[in-house]
Design brief:
Structural class: alpha+beta
Number of strands: 6
Strand order of the largest sheet: 1-4-5-6
Shape: globular
Length: 118
């Protein structure tokens, strides 16, 4: 799947969240609740992959932790992604499609989303 297609599927899942779960955004619940709902909406869009939350296992890494390079970082760093679309137990760009990190904006009812593709 092309990166642009993956981004569009993520946007579609976020639109579903806004339409179906507005309460979570309006009342600024924890980011884990929001990321879980986005993951639920991503699962049918990526049926050939696993969609996991808070997944950090990397069998090829010496530390056993998943490492990701975000566009705004010069090097990879260990992460526990809020959402990852991948094939469990397999590494590489064919198996790790997308990593999503959500963060609340302090004092506001807003979140930002950071994505990476391995």
């Amino acid at each position: 799947m092309q990166y642009e297609e993956i981004q569009e599927e993520l946007r579609g899942a976020i639109r579903q969240l806004i339409r179906n779960d507005r309460f979570l955004l309006e009342y600024a619940v924890r980011e884990e609740a929001v990321s879980h709902r986005i993951a639920v909406y991503l699962e049918p869009r990526f049926s050939e992959y696993n969609v996991d939350c808070e997944y950090d296992c990397d069998l090829d890494s010496e530390s056993g932790r998943k490492r990701v390079k975000y566009e705004d970082q010069p090097t990879e760093s260990p992460v526990r992604p809020d959402i990852i679309i991948h094939h469990r137990g397999l590494n590489g760009s064919d198996h790790n499609q997308l990593v999503v990190e959500l963060k609340k904006v302090p004092g506001k009812r807003m979140m930002w989303i950071r994505i990476a593709r391995n």
